[in-house]
Recover the amino acids of this structure.
């Protein structure tokens, strides 16, 4: 098959036991200058949308470490917080629209939870990301994920 | 580790812009006040550790096929009317 001239070109392959090997394009590769909380040694990730749905896979480029992410507004509404200058600088963003906010999904004993306390922020323009800790006791680390149940 | 004795009202300075003041002592609890530049985030250690634990659980043990399928069923594909991330 011929690719369109402007189609993104795969630039590398991620080897994953959980998801199999897959190819990623330049625009799917994100650098996390500080890694994630407690996981500072992993700084380069692929961010991939899962099957046209809202979920994304954040997979370390050189490790099995991987996370399922959900856009924050689908997990909690309202959900808002201020980010500090250092984070703005780290992400190289100029306005709130420059950043995408995701929460990490965690499966515990067959129940699904999201971490509202420490969302993952990504900036598509700079392709940088970070995990931000929200200083607000109302946001739990383990918030039960409820979808459109019954539908 | 540096150990200093301080009385309520006294402070220590860390580097150029960080001040930690002893506001008071009540029983076994010490009340601290922090002044720091805006790019310094001050957090309780146990909070950071609990986020680390959650990251490890979520990141080292990705959802299995069944859990993934349930996830995808719970949040159906976005239609064009829904806003993108």
């Amino acid at each position: 098959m011929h690719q369109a001239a402007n189609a993104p070109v795969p630039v590398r392959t991620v080897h994953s036991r959980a998801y199999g090997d897959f190819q990623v394009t330049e625009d799917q590769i994100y650098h996390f200058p500080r890694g994630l909380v407690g996981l500072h040694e992993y700084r380069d990730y692929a961010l991939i949308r899962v099957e046209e749905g809202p979920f994304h896979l954040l997979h370390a480029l050189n490790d099995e470490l991987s996370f399922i992410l959900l856009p924050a507004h689908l997990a909690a509404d309202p959900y808002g917080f201020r980010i500090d200058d250092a984070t703005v600088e780290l992400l190289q963003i100029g306005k709130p629209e420059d950043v995408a906010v995701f929460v990490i999904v965690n499966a515990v004993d067959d129940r699904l939870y999201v971490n509202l306390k420490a969302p993952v922020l990504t900036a598509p323009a700079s392709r940088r990301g970070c995990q931000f800790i929200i200083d607000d006791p109302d946001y739990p680390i383990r918030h039960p994920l409820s979808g459109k149940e019954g539908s | 580790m540096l150990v200093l004795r301080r009385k309520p009202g006294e402070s220590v300075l860390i580097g150029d812009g960080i001040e930690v003041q002893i506001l008071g002592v009540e029983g076994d609890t010490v009340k601290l006040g922090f002044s720091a530049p805006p790019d310094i985030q001050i957090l309780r250690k146990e909070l950071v550790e609990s986020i680390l634990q959650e990251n490890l659980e979520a990141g080292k043990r990705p959802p299995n096929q069944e859990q993934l399928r349930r996830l995808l069923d719970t949040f159906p594909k976005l239609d064009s009317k829904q806003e993108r991330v």
The mean pLDDT of chain A is 90.
